[in-house]
Amino acid sequence: MLQDFESLLHSNLDRPDYLGGLLEEFAQGGALEEAILDRASSIFEKQLSVISFGADVLLLLRNERYQLLVRKMGDPEFWSVKEARPNLFLTTSPTDSVVVSVSREPVFMDRYDIDRPVDLNAFDPNARLVCTERCNVTGKAVQELRGCQIYDYHSDGAFLQLRLMKMPFADQVWLFDRATLAPSYPASVGGENSMLVNLARMFGAMKTQEAVPELEALWEHPVHYVRWAALQAVGRIDGDRARNMLRGAVDDPHPLIQRAAQRELTKAGA
Questions:
Q1: Which of 60, 62, 85, 116 has the highest count of CB atoms within 10 angstroms of its CB?
Q2: Phi, psi torsion values for 66, nearest 5 degrees
Q3: Which of 150, 172, 187 represents a domain boundary (last residue)?
Q4: Are residues 56 and 148 in the same domain?
Q5: How many domains is the chain partitioned into structurally?
Q6: Both 92 and 134 in a single domain?
Q7: Same structural domain for residues 135 and 152?
Q8: In a 10 Å sphere around its CB, with 0-12 CB exposed, 13-18 middle and 19+ buried, how is residue 187 labelled?
Q9: Which of 10-24, 83-97, 102-116 has the lowest average pLDDT?
C-alpha cells in the first residue's frame, strides 16, 4: 500500500490540488493506519532504525524531493511520557507542505501573515503577526506555503497530522511570541548551516581554544548567521581576536552584522 502511494506522490508532486485529494484519501481510508502499523512492526522487529521515530513524529517516506510523516498534535498525555512544555511560539513555515489533520474532534487552523514585506534572512524585531484566516480543517488538505506564513492547528483533544513536506527547506525561520505576536528570534533549519551554528555554539560554550582557527575560517561563509555564530564563539574564547573580527564585521555585506558589530564595538569602547 505504501509503495503504491509513494509512486503516486512521485508522479504528482507538482500538482498541489491533486496531492491534497490524494492525502485526504490516504488519511481517511484506512491506509494511514496500515502504514503506521507496518512502520511500528519494522521498528519492533529491528528492521528499521528507530531514528525514523522521533518525539511525537513517525517518518513514513523520505527522499531527496520530500518527506512524508505522521505527527501527533494536541493533548500531551496522548503519547508523551514527559511533561509537555507549553508551546510559546509560532513559527514561519520552512517549506511547502500539504497537511491533513485526522481527528474525531474538530481541528481548527489559524493562519497568520507578517504585517509587512520582510526578508526572513534579515530579522526585523518590529514586525508583527496578523491572523488572516481561521477555519475548520478536519480531514481537509491544507496547502502550506514556505515563507512568511504561519499555520497554527488546535483542537480540544489529541489528533494526528499527515504531513507531506517538500524539499528544499528554507535556511531560516522566525519564531514569534504567541502572546504578543512579536518576533522573538530567528533560527536555522537543519542541514549543514544548522550544524555549523551548533558546533560554533558548543565550541564557544566549552571555550575550546583549538577551535579558534576553524571558527575564524567560518568568517568567509556565505550565510550571515553562520558568520555571526562563529564570531560570537570566538568572543567567548579569545576577546582580542574577536575584537579584530568585529572591526572587519562593520563592513560585512549583511546589514544585520554591520549594525550588530558596530553596537558591540561601541559597548566595548573599541
A1: 60
A2: -165, 165
A3: 187
A4: yes
A5: 2
A6: yes
A7: yes
A8: middle
A9: 83-97
What was the pLDDT predicted at 44?
A: 54
Is pLDDT of 105 > 60? yes
Lowest mean pLDDT among 92-96, 194-198, 215-219, 227-231: 194-198
Cα–Cα distance for residue pair 36/159, rounded to 1 Å: 14
**Residues β-bridged to residue 125:** none
Extract the C-alpha cell encoding 83.
511533561
Q: Of 136, 13, 18, nearest to 66 (Cα)?
A: 13
Q: Distance between CA atoms of 2 and 50, rounded to whole angstroms?
A: 19
In the block, residue with C-alpha cell 555585506: 253
> 165 and 226 share a domain?
no
pLDDT the model gives residue 45? 54
Instruction: Give the position of cell 509587512.
Output: 116
- Tell me, yes or no, whether 213 and 101 share the same domain: no
Q: How many CB atoms lie within 10 A of CB 99?
A: 22
**In which domain, by residue range, is 96 found?**
2-187
Work out the end-to-end distance of the chain between its first and last CA atoms, rounded to an integer number of angstroms. 65
Chosen domain end from 187, 213, 228? 187
- β-sheet bridge partners, residue 153: 109
d(CA 178, CA 176): 6
Q: Do 62 and 165 sit in the same domain of this protein?
A: yes
pTM of the predicted protein model: 0.71
| Summary mean pLDDT of the chain | 85
Q: Tell me, yes or no, whether 180 and 195 share the same domain.
A: no
Q: pLDDT (tens digit, 9 = 90+) per residue, 34-81? A: 887 776 666 555 544 434 444 577 888 888 899 999 888 875 544 444
* 181 and 89 part of one domain: yes
Q: Which amino acid is at 21?
A: G
pLDDT at 43: 54
